[in-house]
Amino acid sequence: MAIWNLGSINxxxxxxxDSLPLPxxxxxxxxxxxxxxxxxxxxxxxxxxxxxxxxxxxAMGPGDDWVIERLAxxxxxxxxxxxxxxxxxxxAIIMVDDQAENAIVIHPGANRAIDExxxxxSLTGIGAGDTLLLQNxxxxxxxxxxxxxxxxxxxxxxxxxxxLQAVRQVLPHVTILAMNEGxxxxxxxxxxxxxxxxxxxxxRGSKGAEYRDLTTGRTHEQASxxxxxxxxxxxxxxxxxxxxxxxDGGLSIPDALRRASAAAALQVTRPGAGDxxxxxxxxxxxxxxxx
Length: 291
Ligand code: RIB
Fold this sequence. Notes:
The chain is built from 9 helices and 13 strands. The protein is α/β, with parallel strands linked by helices.
């Protein structure tokens, strides 16, 4: 089995502040770092760290080779990442305050210029039993979901950043819809009634997570592990990538939820997004230390 991830690749430019700026306010940051980010890249790193064979499908501009080298160093297959001479690599301006909350602005660049022909050629290797991950930071989502669905693969769509039109278009091809509680509230308000998917993964940060199996009507709940966060950027991506890898590896839903929750808990204790994602050994040690 393998995970294929059509996902954004961003350079995260992170600024630490006492508090997030109000409209019209100018603030001086205490520190500035650049690191690996993008919801897609973060999910690929998480899935690969969790032990899944992970192929990343995406695009970057020229240069910035450290980004792709860092993805590869975490075990992600980057052979299908296109390099576009006329596009900038996606980047994100991320402000993080003393409560570990953030505000993010992204410039999509190459992430929104992905060529659908290249994408569907890359996906010819996907098969039944594989998983396609998608988030709403790239172009080509519907084409990829259709191709994966036709091949009999599981399709997990993270509806983030939330855009109702994007969800509507991809929903007919989705197996599991992953959202945080804010995104879920927006979706349920806009689309009341049954959704045409097999499962809903809803993450609630420090309040835990749940998986609603719509085929059995059963809900599995997972409490969060108590940690002191320093930066919550990418926690949802870590959860989604570890959860997908758990399913890909044959874990039960409760076991996949528990490992994903542990990975996200560890990830928020470190600064950064993709660079803060723990290895499987670190997750094992964290879980072993729980009473
Ligand atoms: O989910 C966190 C991610 O959102 C960051 O890494 C940033 O790049 C944005 O895509």
